[in-house]
Amino acid sequence: MERKFDAWSQLAEKPDNKSRIRAAPLASARDITKDLPPQVAAFEKFLEETGGIRGGWDEYDHGTFLKFKNRYKGKIIFIKHALVAIPTKTEEEIRDHEEWYQTYLSMNEKKKESIKKWREKKEGEKEEVLSKVESEIAEDQQKEEQKQQRLKEQIQEEKRQRFSQLNAWKVQKELERAQAEEKKLREALDKAQKEEDMKKEKAELKQKVENYKKEREEEEKFLEEQKKVWEEEEKERHRQISAREIHRFRDRDQRKIQEKLAKEKEKENEKIQKRLDRLREQVDRDPSRLLKPTAEWTSRLKDKGPSGSGPVIQMPHRAIPSWRQGMT
């Protein structure tokens, strides 16, 4: 139930979207909070009758109203400035909205305080129940111990009586029989007690599971409905914001791209111009150089001696390995 309050409180603080989307969840919330403190039901009824958490105004007008109210710290002069920024509203409508907003804040604060007290009360009740359960468990345990003690004393008394009445042989036989009966009786009692405890535990567990399942289903249903409303509100808000922001970002990005391209083009032109200037400074025009031999060719001509064109007197051959000498 505490999580229901948290989910409901978050819903009250989020902007609603359209009245037709808000209608179904309000009915569901009213059914769930019918047994809760009257401040909660009163706040819910107030929202339903006055158009939600913005008092029937759209998101932009209400947001502008709050912006000027906060800017002037709630002073009445903010109405004059808000009137200029909200051309769709008259001064009387803004004053009525200010009165509504003060009522909304007051009732919302009372609702929060009521929920806080409700939680404290539930915590106290929980502690009381736990204390009572612990007391009952201790009492049952004490009763069981007393029962076992009485049974033990009864058995001991029977054993003493039989021992005093019978002779040695009969005492031995009777003692063996008594021990067997005692063991059988104890096993029967233990079995019966275990079965009773298990039956009781299963019944309690089943009831707890059913209660938890029912409460969980109610919580999940309520939270799912609130989630749908919140998602629709978020989608609408993002659509409104995106439509304005996309156009602004697109213009900004286009300007940045144009500026970047212009700078890059200017830098490239400067690089080309510098290269052309360096080439003009380093290269001297001399048409006669085309008919002159290169430095490499001149170097080769110098390396050739007078014996380069004489007859071959001896031709070098590779040496024959020792293991092949003497073979034909």
From TrEMBL:
The lineage of its organism: Eukaryota, Metazoa, Spiralia, Lophotrochozoa, Mollusca. Residues 280-289 have a biased composition (Basic and acidic residues). This is Coiled-coil domain-containing protein 112. Signal peptide: none annotated. InterPro entries: CCDC148/CCDC112. The keyword Zinc does not apply. PANTHER family: COILED-COIL DOMAIN-CONTAINING PROTEIN 112, MUTATED IN BLADDER CANCER 1. Keywords: Coiled coil. Residues 129-154, 280-328 are annotated as: Disordered.
